[in-house]
Write a structure and sequence with these properties.
heterodimer; A: mainly alpha; MetI-like fold; two-stranded antiparallel sheet; 1% strand; B: 293 residues; mainly alpha; 17 helices
Amino acid sequence: MSASTVNANLLGIRSRRRKALLVGLLFASPWILGFLIFQLYPILISFYYSLTDYHLMSAPHFTGLKNYQDLFRDPKFYQSLYNTIYITIFGFVPQLAFSLFIALLLNMNVKGQSIYRTIFFLPTIVPLVASSLLWMWLLNGEHGLVNEILRSLGMGQPAWLADPNWTKPALILMGFWGTGIGTVMYLAALQDVPREYYEAAAIDGAGPWQRFWKITFPSISPMTLFQLITGLIGSFQYFTQAYVFANDPNNIGGPGGSMLFYATYLYQQAFSFLDMGYASAMAWVLFVIVLVLTILVFRTSARWVYYGGEK
Amino acid sequence: MNPQLADLFEAQPANPPMRWSVVFRRRILPHVPLVLVGILFLMPFAWLVVTSVETDQEIFSSHPVFFPHVLQWSNYAQAVQDFPFLQYTYNTLYIAFFSIIGQVISCPLVAYSFSRLRYPGRTFLFFLMMSTMILPSQVTMVPVYVMWNKMGLINTFWPLIIPHFFGSAMYIFLLRQFFMSIPFELSEAAKIDGASEFRIFTQIMIPLAKPAMYTVILFQFLASWSDFMGPLIYLNDPTKWTLSIGLQSFIGDHSVQWGLLMAASTLFTLPIIVLYFFVQRRFIQGITLTGIK
């Protein structure tokens, strides 16, 4: 082979590679453009907005860290954080456990599995505004079905949506009704656990409790990780239910601000007060929180998440 | 822990011996909590429908009326009248339709790039996309609103439609998983025959990906139908409202007319429930496909 054909071949490889790159990027271009326009640019520019006084009508006016200083002194910011953490711990976590419990029951190959699955899944496809409205009625203090049931059981009847102490439990109760997606996902994960594991464990004389913790739980741990991360981030986006329950555009935090969540407060700052600078500071704090939370969960996950085949 | 309860935590029974006590534990006992929870889960639906056909007297009687005396269908008639139901439905369907078009055009292209094409930086782009899935929309909400505002598109449907023409990470991931499962020999053979990537994509991949595409269409329809925050931010003009926003404002106007409110909610929910029974399997498949394993 002469030097010139080697060169031509090299050029051929190079131009083919360049072509492959071009074609690849071209196919991916809708997402790449969308990422640049609707995610990267907004994240960066919102950092700039967060350093300004910006009320939409006039140009942003640079104020340095003032928004952040105000934010960290703002009792409502802490209240919204508290409420968000509250529903994460007392709502999301038990709801996740509940969806796993139902999935485990369904996975015992019960008769009518698909009927049960439908029943648990249906509430999750009801539009959130409609289900929130329905629960407003169910939790109505005087004529609601929930209080009727409590009355017939001889228990106390809270004023749910009117009493600041009961608004969050009301939201959590409604949340249990929407755990069907978690159940369906867990059920799929459970059905993937190899049967041989259980047979081997049975031969080794492992009890049911041991089998759950040594086989079932580790086998479905990637699913738990997935649900934990999406759920934690979901808590910081908690909005529609609280907005509908509060039922007052001028007081979207509900009685005593008991339903003021991170997302509702951010919405209020941006679209009720049109304080885009302050809302952007909140958005950036949220960005950092989500980043830190995700990293933390992934870090600890090395200790409890097992991927099949690896270890 | 006692064995009855412990059995509930087993993922799959290992070779069940057929003693009566075991049959009872494994085949009958699980139904007890399932039936109980099932009833609790169905009750709200029953209450929704029952309330929607009751009179105010029945609704506000001192004891709940489970079987209304006369079915008060006029609640529905009045709800449709008070609440520009047709207009809101039209607006909602309009947004849903064009959002679906956007996703259907963009997502398969990107998914194809991330699954069947080889080029430097592909892995990086894919992981970048996956990591954007955890980005809450609240983080970008303000600047995106400012952008649409500068373009004078507030109070139009465009801010709710155009972003869908750039694909969504979840649907791209779903389609990518699907494309990965198609044998590579198929596209190799076409390539040897001189077909371009775009031809392979349109002639081979798209027809094969139909089931996954239906899932994307279904999910996007559901997302647009139920979306609340988007229309709340972008649509102020009541003639532009979607069903979600319309129903929400209806609550404020008719705060104690529960019969009317439940009738409107039923009308809003029913199409989705009916849809579910037609495409049940695809729903469940889609959800299990997007949840990583």
